[in-house]
Amino acid sequence: MTETAPSRRLYIKTYGCQMNVYDSERMADVLRPLGYALTDEAEGADLVVLNTCHIREKATEKVYSELGQIKRMKARKEAAGGAMTVAVAGCVAQAEGAEIMARQPAVDLVVGPQAYHRLPELIARAHRASGERLAADFTADEKFDALPGERAPTGVTAFLTVQEGCDKFCTFCVVPYTRGAEYSRPAEAVLAEAEQLAAHGVREVTLLGQNVNAYAGEGGLAGLVRRLAQVPGLDRIRYTTSHPHDMDEALIAAHGEVEALMPYLHLPVQAGSDRVLRAMNRAHTAESYLRLVEKIRAARPDIAMSGDFIVGFPGESERDFEATLQLVSEIRYASAFSFKYSRRPGTPAAAMPGQVPDEVKDERLARLQALLSQQQVAFNDATVGRTVPVLLEKPGRHPGQVVGRSPYLQAVHLDAPESLIGEIRAVDILAASRGSLAGALSPSPRLEPA
Ligand code: SAH
Ligand code: SF4
Ligand code: F3S
């Protein structure tokens, strides 16, 4: 007698960073053998998972408002004689699991980022309407060992988590509390997963970690990158997010030497005033960051720099803020993310004096974003007229169009047959806007070195 797993509909909504995107994929992998197939609609799903983010207050609020809607869908399904299991995963689950259960009775279970391998068990328990609704403990090694070996990547690019957690304790940030201590996966496990991805047609991996360049497996991140560059079929390697403090000589050298390592680096600085950086517990100064970027550019002159910024950290004066603008002017970023400081309960900065009024934060954010956006336009404009290798990733919005990425992580739109998806082609860049480039397949396949 053969038994096929019943088909159940699984809806996962992902908030926050790429590590959550990776985790959502792995949750789908864990649940697939139980008969759960992904759907892109929450309405009518058998299992709804919200994979949440706690980084700023707004991110957390979104989860509670989404849960309100899910609750009504669950009621509709039950009225029709069906059932919907609702799970909250991710960093809000880790940080306020008990509160979620209390505030929203429609939630059947809460599962923290290190406990996804236990999802099948938690779901079974929830179905028996008994006991354990809360699993939020820290054992990252157990998590990776227990997740199923098989991944089912759906595109030509994939995320691969190599490191989790954070020991840096920046005073504004919840991550050390929601993701636990730094943990690095063994290089062998990462290689095995990368080989599997490549065998499924993945050509580019982005190595993930809250502090990915603190990767402490054999050979450090530079060693890992060099080994991954040997995996047949993997032509492009990226990594994110890096802390300036962990940007070592070996990794800088790899940027000059490893062809597969793409010339793009997300290296958050947060602020340009040393006084603010000290209060943030960032372990770098504006000057040390500038020198570091100089070194990186000496190894790889064309590298696209990216960063994160916080405006309105407690005590930030107008002069402090101007130091951030000054630093940005000196670096010339290709892209960046900037945020208003959000007060997170339990973090040291939440209790600091000199909280900055919201109007001031708004005004500073607008000025910073105007400058960053100017720099992004300038960076993209400088690509026009060049021929760059583009990894063709997926169909574009218009018929006959495909979208890919340049080595500098710019989105590139061009007319090309869909059969070319998955290939790296020379593309003449014809025009640029702030968010993307337009190009055409180059008649001559010869590439300038990228
Ligand atoms: N580990 C990464 C990023 C973690 S969170 C790193 O250190 O770079 C992503 C970004 O969110 C941070 O870089 C920071 O700019 C922003 N962020 C974190 N906590 C914040 C807070 N309380 N308010 C506003 N922005 C915050
Ligand atoms: Fe948060 Fe700082 Fe750790 Fe990044 S390095 S995750 S900002 S504590
Ligand atoms: Fe958010 Fe957690 Fe990532 S708080 S940014 S989902 S590590």
* End-to-end separation: 57 Å
The CATH topology of the domain at 8-139 is Rossmann fold
Q: What name goes with the CATH superfamily of the domain at 8-139?
A: Methylthiotransferase, N-terminal domain
* Class computed from helices, strands and strand pairing: alpha/beta
Mean pLDDT: 93
The low-confidence runs, each spanning 5 or more residues with pLDDT under 50, are none
The CATH class designation of the domain at 8-139 is Alpha Beta
Indicate the CATH architecture of the domain at 8-139: 3-Layer(aba) Sandwich
Beta-strand percentage range:
15-25%
Alpha-carbon Rg, integer: 23 Å
Work out the helicity level. 25-40%
Topology, number of strands: 19
Secondary structure tally, helices: 13
Outline type: globular
Structure description:
This protein is an alpha/beta fold and about 450 residues long. Among the domains are: about 10-140, Rossmann fold; about 385-440, Beta Barrel (OB fold (Dihydrolipoamide Acetyltransferase, E2P)). Helix content is about 35%, strand content about 20%. The protein contains 13 helices and 19 strands. It has helices spanning about 20-30, 55-80, 90-105, 120-125, 140-145, 175-180, 185-200, 220-230, 250-255, 275-280, 285-300, 320-330, 360-380, and strands spanning about 10-15, 35-40, 45-50, 85-90, 110, 135, 155-160, 165, 185, 205-210, 235-240, 265, 305-310, 335-340, 385-395, 400-405, 410-415, 425-430, 435-440. The strands form 5 sheets. A 6-stranded parallel beta sheet has the order 2-1-3-4-5-6, sandwiched between helices. Helix 8 runs parallel beside helix 9 (about 250-255). The longest helix has 24 residues, at about 360-380. The radius of gyration is 23 Å and the shape is globular. The mean pLDDT is about 95. Bound molecules: S-adenosyl-L-homocysteine, iron/sulfur cluster and FE3-S4 cluster (F3S).
